[in-house]
Amino acid sequence: MAKKSFTETIKRGFFDLFIVWKDEFKNVITDAGVLIFFLVAPLGYPLLYCCIYDNEVAKEVPMVVVDHSNSSRSREFTRLCDASRDVRVVGRCANMSEAEAAMKEKKAYGIMLIPDDFDKKIVRGEKSNVLLYSSMSSLLYYKAFLSTLTEVSFEMNEDIQISRMAALSDRQQEVEVTPIEYEHVNYFNPQGGFASFLIPAVLVLIIQQTLLMGISLLVGAARDRNTFRNLVPIQNHYRGTFRIVFGKTFCYLTFYAIVSVYLLWVVPRLFSLPQMGDRMTVALFMLPFLLSCIFFSMTLSAFVRDRESSFVIFIFLSLILLFASGVSWPASAVPWYWKVFSYVFPSTFGIHGFVKMNTMGSTLHDVEFEYIALWILTFIYFILACLVYRWQIIRSERIYQQSIERER
To answer: How far is CA 98 from CA 31, 111, 112, 117, 349, in A?
Structure first.
């Protein structure tokens, strides 16, 4: 008899779990606002973001030249800068006032000033300077100007040194000019592109934020449908805490298993972003990330009283979390209290782990710290979600009993 009772309990538990999954799935597909966050935003926003940053580096950035030297060497320096990939000389100005006017009118974003003693100092064997003024409205402009002028100056330095070693052989000239050969290699981002290092982090953050917003909308809608604005309807309290939490979790996993494949594999492939990670390894890493995001969202959304408040509370966090993760801003420059704050969110560990695996080819062992941290967050937020929903069930029961007593 006891065995039969236990079997019936298991069957009833799975049946209730399926009912919760079905009801939540119905709520998702019938709510236009939730579908926007669960499907439309994850599918469309990455495409928009990648299209904007498809040109990963700034090329042919306009620059004006103020050449007070007006010598063959200064003209050669200007010509080499103009022939580079990153800089385009759009004009030559007579003085700095004219060049500054061109920058104010956005005709150029940089000024190269060649002093009048540029050629004279080189002839005398002294060090000569070239001044660069750059608009800091974008660091990409400054990077393009600085790297180009540096490379051109190195090239001209070699030519000048070789011209003074006419008595030496070609091999001796090569050794004298470049005694140590060097090669600049950008690991994991060969072209030094903006999208290659930023978009993978944004894709992971999109998963967390859309889950948080979508679940919050569902909670706000559930409260609006109930007379007493309860998260858990009175007639559903018999299903139990674990059945409600697991039923909703499986529903959200149903959607985001597909969304994650699209975001983390399809989008990077469409835009030729780095993909060095093993797919199975990434999938194993994403499992605790999705679970922790779901339980985290369920915990926070329980405090949402209506649909609109979720936008005010959570949407501003996206930019903060992106900076605090240490991807778009160096982690060494982030204050310790912001780092501690970021550890509360699964996206911090998810971003670091995914970037290491996808962009750098790390294994699961290499991201052991992030992997364990995500499982810890999964456990913590699962307990908190169960406590929150248990509290809501008890509250529903209390309200139900009070309503019966009033009717009497």
So the answer is: 59, 10, 13, 21, 51
Q: List the CATH number of the domain containing 124.
A: 3.40.1710.10
Query: What's residue 124's pLDDT?
Result: 85
Do 23 and 65 belong to one domain? Answer: no
| pLDDT of residue 354 exceeding 90 | yes
Whether the predicted pLDDT of 73 surpasses 80: yes
Q: Which two tokens stand for residue 394?
A: 């008890």
- Cα separation, 135 vs 61, whole angstroms: 11
Across 32-60, average pLDDT = 84
What are the structure tokens assigned to 346, written together? 């699964």
Give the structural domain span for 163: 61-177
DSSP assignment of 51-88, as one string?
HHTSS-S--SEEEEEEESS-SHHHHHHHHHHHHSSSEE
Cα–chain-centroid distance for residue 369? 20
CA distance 273 to 349: 21
Q: Where are the beta strands (DSSP E) in 105-230?
A: 110-114, 131-134
Asked if residue 282 belongs to a domain, the reply is: yes
**What is the rounded distance in angstroms from the CA atom of residue 347 to the CA atom of residue 216?**
17
Q: What type of residue is 404?
A: I
pLDDT greater than 90 at residue 192 = no
Residues 66 and 48 in one domain: no
C-alpha–C-alpha distance, residues 388 and 303, integer Å: 9
Instruction: Evaluate if residue 291 carries a pLDDT over 90.
Output: yes
Which tokens belong to 104?
């104010």
- Is the overall model pTM greater than 0.85, yes or no? no
Residue where a domain stops, chosen among 177, 201, 222: 177
One domain, residues 26 and 163: no
Structure tokens at 338: 């912001």
Which residue is it, tokens 């993760």?
325
